[in-house]
User: Fold this.
Amino acid sequence: MYLLGYDIGSSSVKACLVNAETGQVVASDFFPKTEMPIYAAQPGWAEQDPDMWWENLKLANQSVIKKSGIDVAEIKGIGISWQMHGLVAIDKNGKVLRPSIIWCDSRAVPYGEKAFEAIGAENALAALLNSPGNFTASKLAWVKENEPYLYGQIDKIMLPGDYIAMKLTGGVCTTIEGLSEGVFWDFQRNTVSTEVMSYFGFSNDIIPPIVPTFGFQGTVCAKAAIELGLKEGTPLGYRAGDQPNNAVSLNVFNPGEIASTAGTSGVVYGVLGEVNYDPLSRVNTFAHVNHTSGKPRLGVLLCINGTGILNSWIKRNMIQPGLDYNNMNELAQKSPVGSKGVSVIPFGNGAERVLENKNPGCSFHGINFNIHTLSDIVRASQEGIVFSFRYGMEIMEEMGMEINVIRAGNANMFLSPVFRETLAGVTGATIELFDTDGAAGAAKAAGMGVGIYSSNEEAFASLKKIMTIGSGERDKERYEEAYQRWKTYITQ
Assistant:
């Protein structure tokens, strides 16, 4: 028996095939091999073509099936993870009406701010656990006002993973987890928010039917079976946004457990067992994958937009051609803790929620032409990303969350010794790295959804820890000094 997982990112689409009995990855691949384009017609905009996701999913799926050589009839469940907060709008024929406005697009900030004021901060936070901010509902409000003809053709709106599920099954549906990340969900009434829909003038008809996060969500239709080379009727058993799913991949289900990622954007995600929120919406609270009204499981999400994308920008613009990220990580290690006084503010990828949706841009501070080298710049950039994590984690701790252990996949920025040691050193937390990723997590979660596994403990029993980084006392004062210096540049 096998399980198949898809992870729809903003840089690439990954497919992963897992042996359901052993929990081991049989084959995985991603496409495209260069980053998918993000279209920005105006500053602060970010769009992608949903059909581009599907085409790359087909390539990744084809590669995985070919590599594994399995009989596709033995695939017993499919799971989907997706880039959060995106808006996909379709007409009554299932045709995509416009490019998806994705997570890092900041055009809708004013719409969310006006909604927050009109609904009332106290009412909005108590019911939605967030300001409508820059989330999916506000993005739809932008479309309604600026593209009224197109808005009038909308039959259903979806998150990116809902769109992939539609392409797989031919059916349109969503989940409470998805609706909560779009800030459509009322946690007090346990239903789609009347206040949000009424304020923005949205019809409830545009919201798809709701299915469980784990459970039967349709089967692979004849058209998709032909396109993907899968067996018609294979069940779809799970879907979740990429950050809840990353937590799932690391077996983070219960209150007090923490997960982190550091790809294009960076995230610290912790599970709460009670309803709580940040009154300034600098960190956000959504339904976790196992949330129910009777047994709350809420994911507190700290998102830093300018993470791996800063590292990528430095590679493209400052690093000698032919050198890769491993070379950059080695370069960063040549500079001492604190980067000889250089500080980098990494906020150059749109409005930052942790800064109350301000968009200060990226900036470099303290450079001395006589003593600093490229090593200092590279290290300061990685430290700056970590310091932005620490800044947000202080808010999470104010909400009552203890951050003692952070679990992460051994990927992206966590491949850098400087990054992970700085995170441990400046937070005091132990960092645990695991050999997993979002696509593998989605595959195993699908096993829970279709009933192969009876619990998350069974589904993730094979999860392999490959490294532990303790905080210790070494360089503690220097990390703290560098962080406090960095912090002065965003609190001036």
Remarks:
- The longest strand covers residues 75-82.
- The longest helix spans residues 374-398.
- The chain has a mean pLDDT of 95.
- Residues 27 and 66 are 9 Å apart (CA to CA).
